[in-house]
Design goal:
The structure holds 2 protein chains of 2 kinds.
Chain A lengths: L14 H25 L4 H5 L1 H11 L7 H32 L8 H16 L2 H12 L3 H25 L4 H8 L4 H36 L6 H10 L3 H29 L1
Helix pairs in contact in A: 4-7, 4-9, 4-10, 5-7, 6-7, 7-9, 8-9, 9-10, 9-11, 10-11
Chain B lengths: L1 E9 L5 E10 L5 E5 L6 H8 L7 E6 L2 E2 L5 H10 E4 L11 H6 L8 H5 L5 H13 L15 H14 L4 E4 L8 H18 L2 E6 L2 H5 L1
Parallel strand pairs in B: 3-8, 6-7, 7-8
Antiparallel strand pairs in B: 1-2, 1-4, 4-5
Helix pairs in contact in B: 5-6, 6-7
Classes of the chains: A mainly alpha, B alpha/beta.
Chain lengths: 266, 212
């Protein structure tokens, strides 16, 4: 009954798999070590410099609450920038998202051209856009708004064209069959299908714009980021921590409200 | 009058949709049923008439006009005269019933007005009257996706009527419905055909229903 087997499997994986995994591990570790040596940054430094971290964090406390009154105007400027930029970006992105959806723009040349243009727009980081516009229009909120518009259009068009590409095309056939023209087909058969997602994405882009406009301030593109940058340069750390706390609270509140609104839409 | 002369259609992928079709359909209230297996070319036949597909050879005359060369505005003018009913109803599911029905007026309404949803009083009355004809007027403000299949097909009949067509094409109008609902929908189609004298061409794949 107990016929003894002459072959005992050596491991749970074949030899070849083990070899490949071992080699991959060696390669990853060597690249890691090479990168660390070349940049002279070792993760162990974090633990060596922990006292420094505590020292700096200590400078931030206690927050300077008397500074709050200087924060409000700039905070509202940030929100205004996000509102203006989002509104304009939403309007601009409607035609562009239709042009980058392959079920609406059936002409391959136009479709590929529009996609190419929007891919280029998306590869430019928001901070670079801000640097460029500050160079063109000078320091201030206007440059920030311009940068945010382009940044937001890039995101919105990408998200929206993908939604448009997944819609049910049968109703568009019915509208065309009853003699409707292109714009009528879009407004009667396509817009109703994508409107909830479109509003939802617009709110989402508004959230992103609020956060992005903080960073843009660092290069002089208006809003509360500019104030933050100034106080960091003056090493006025208690004021910096006041700004950070207020921004944190405001961003959380806006994200919460917008999240609730979006939840109700879909 | 609709006349197919030596009409052929070969799809871009090489599939032959129609081969040398010759047929005359008189206007003035004929009720024509086309029966055939799926893949036989019934849909291609019916979709040629309003140019949702374009035949590759021959001539297709609607009211003595060869429609194969129509483009843009002329094509839309032809399509406003021809109503179409689909197997999958093709309503805009997120829109209300009345908005779906009034979309039958798009061919007669300016682009700008229709985008802003401005329709004349007569158009709105017509849409409502047509909903009444298919006994679904109480669902006026319901969203189309809240309706059952049979109700949706009735809404799509009301949409076609609102178009005031001279010809109705129905491409497998009852293929997604159960037998009692199918009979009801066919009854409405026949009733409209008789009362309004609208020539109707219907695709079916059931012989028994075609015989009725």
């Amino acid at each position: 009954m107990n016929k003894s087997s002459s072959y005992v499997p050596k491991g749970l994986y074949p030899f070849k798999t083990k070899l490949i995994i071992s080699l991959a591990l060696i390669v990853v570790i060597s690249f890691y070590l090479l990168s660390s040596i070349k940049t002279e940054s070792f993760i162990i430094d974090f633990f060596m410099k922990v006292p420094n971290v505590f020292g700096l964090v200590g400078d931030f406390f206690p927050p300077d609450w008397s500074y709050v009154n200087q924060v409000w105007p700039k905070l509202f400027e940030t929100i205004h920038m996000a509102i203006i930029a989002t509104t304009i970006a939403v309007i601009i992105s409607i035609p562009f998202s239709l042009l980058t959806a392959n079920n609406v723009t059936t002409n391959t040349w136009i479709y590929q051209l529009m996609r190419f243009l929007l891919n280029i727009v998306r590869t430019v980081p928001d901070i670079i856009l801000a640097v460029v516009f500050v160079g063109l229009f000078g320091i201030g909120a206007f440059s920030g708004i311009m940068a945010l518009i382009i940044f937001a259009v890039g995101i919105l068009v990408k998200l929206m064209s993908e939604v448009i590409e997944t819609i049910d095309m049968n109703p568009t056939e019915a509208i065309r069959a009853s003699g409707g023209n292109g714009l009528q087909t879009i407004s009667f058969a396509i817009i109703p299908q994508v409107l909830p997602q479109f509003i939802s994405f617009s709110l989402y882009v508004f959230e992103i714009n609020i956060r992005a406009s903080l960073v843009l301030g660092l290069v002089g593109a208006g809003g509360i980021g500019q104030l933050l940058n100034k106080e960091i340069n003056f090493m006025n750390y208690p004021a910096v921590s006041t700004i950070i706390i207020i921004v944190f609270i405001v961003v959380v509140i806006i994200d919460y409200i917008s999240g609730k609104l979006r939840g109700g839409l879909i | 009058m609709i006349e197919f002369r030596e009409l052929s259609l070969i799809y871009p992928n090489g599939t032959e949709g129609l081969r040398n079709i010759n047929i005359k359909i008189n206007e003035g209230g004929e009720f024509v049923v086309i029966v055939g297996l799926s893949g036989a070319g019934k849909s291609t036949f019916i979709r040629s008439i309003n140019r949702l597909v374009t035949p590759t050879n021959g001539a297709l005359l609607v009211e003595n006009e060869d429609i194969l060369k129509l483009k843009g505005k002329d094509l839309r003018r032809l399509r406003t005269k021809i109503g179409m009913i689909f197997q999958s109803y093709n309503l805009v599911k997120r829109s209300t019933v009345i908005k779906n029905v009034i979309s039958g007026r798009l061919g007669y309404t300016g682009t700008f007005k229709s985008i802003l949803n401005i329709f004349s009083k007569e158009d709105k009355l017509l849409a409502y009257e047509n909903l009444k004809r298919v006994n679904i007027e109480e669902k006026l403000y319901n969203r189309a996706d809240e309706l059952s299949g049979g109700q949706q097909q009735r809404v799509s009949i009301a949409r076609v009527l609102t178009q005031k067509p001279k010809l109705i094409l129905a491409d497998e109008p009852v293929a997604s419905l159960d037998p009692p609902t199918s009979h009801q929908v066919m009854k409405y189609l026949k009733q409209i055909n008789q009362e309004d004298n609208i020539t109707t061409i219907v695709n079916l794949h059931f012989i028994d229903m075609a015989m009725e």
